[in-house]
Amino acid sequence: MALPVSGKENHLRAAALFCVGVVALFALFNAFVSPALRLNPGAFFTNESYIRGLYSPLDLKDSTAVFRYVFKNLHKEVTVYPSENYYYFRFTAAGKSVWGTLVLSADNRDQGVLGFGYIEKQDRYTGEYPDAVGGSKDLTAADGVLVKKITPFKYTVTFEGRTVTFILQSLQLQTPQHALLQEDERLVGPNFDESGIQFYLVYNMTEKNLFWILNEDVFVPETFRRINDELEVGMRTGFAFYLDTLNRRRILVGIDGYYALLNNWFDGPFDQLPDNYVKTGDIEVQKYMEASYGFEPGIIDTYGNFLHREGIRVAVAPYYAYYSISDLVNVIENCKTGIESRAAFISCITTQVFHLPENLPK
Predict the structure, then answer these.
(1) CB contact at 8 A, 198 and 191
(2) 239-293 tens-digit pLDDT
(3) Exposure string (b/e) for 26-58, b if CB count within 10 Å is 16 or more?
(4) What is the DSSP letter of 25?
(5) Strand (E) positions, the chain?
(6) ∠ CA 114-120-125 to the nearest 5 degrees?
(7) Percent composition of the chain: helix, strand, coil (DSSP 3-state, to 5)
(8) Does this model's pTM top 0.90?
(9) Measuring CA to CA, which residue among 85, 112, 86, 89 is closest to residue 99?
């Protein structure tokens, strides 16, 4: 039994507990966040740099000039957080907003290939934009770009006498500690999305469906808004989660449809599979994709790339692209009708649905 304490002692105890809590939270953050994130508290953007870029004369039609500009502005060492090995960037130039990627793909980086692409982007969706300026190319030694493997998760890229080290994402391969998996579920692997959110990809053998659950074994850089007893939406990302309280997990059921149309960093984890571990043989995704999407052997490779459609990959997007929260609520309610098993219900709320709203600009 706790001893009675005075008001002053209560305040001291509360203060001590608060300090212990802060220290514990900081320790938890440090335990699950990479050293690069701990040392750098975050990116710092200014309106000044944004406007300076708009007035810069960079020729966006010259893809070599654009690559030179991007490469010149990289730090000597960069960390590629997204698990599909895309290093995303954006900048302003010549009156335009530009988004792009550098990629050390697991299937060809050891052959000396650095993928590069960029496109003029709209900051809001206003319809199709066929005249957008952009370019893309797989860069190799023939282009003066030298890719060198140092370790399985560390590569250097040299161009015009400058070398940049790329640290690739190394994820924990253990079974989820917080979330529970059912007997007919199998963990496919972890994911680190370009939104900064981490997920687990799960496969249900009974329903033959893939779905994503939030990785809550690590720090989750999100604040959630509770919609009802079953649904939460991320304030920053717009990711919507079904609260599977029985199994202590959040199941991804929706992403903001307008983010998908913009193809921005919050369009969902469909494009961030754990490729580095597919390459090492620690994770297999092909058989789960074939079972979930009904592909015959010979349609996709071990990474989920279509063998006869160059540059096209399976989009593992088992969630609803919503344009209003009420639509998402209705989807969940409708899945309760006529469905008897828990597995069938989860399969229903994680059906891959993408549609366009009626009032979409042309």
Answers:
(1) yes
(2) 999 999 999 999 999 999 999 999 999 999 998 999 999 999 999 999 999 999 9
(3) eeeeeeeeeeebeeeeeeeeeeeeeeebeeeeb
(4) H
(5) 77-80, 86-93, 96-103, 114-120, 134-139, 145-151, 154-159, 162-168, 185-192, 198-204, 209-214, 224-226, 231-234, 240-244, 249-256, 320-322
(6) 125
(7) 30, 30, 45
(8) no
(9) 89
| Amino acid at residue number 306 | F
How far apart, in whole angstroms, are the C-alpha atoms of residue 359 and residue 362?
Answer: 9
- CB under 8 A, 24+ apart: contacts of 37-46: none
Amino acid at 143: D
CA distance 153 to 280: 11
Report the number of secondary-structure helices (H) and strands (E) in the chain. Answer: 9, 16
- Separation CA 167–CA 90 (nearest Å): 19
Residue with structure tokens 């990302």? 237
**Apex 109 CA angle, 87 and 176, nearest 5:** 60
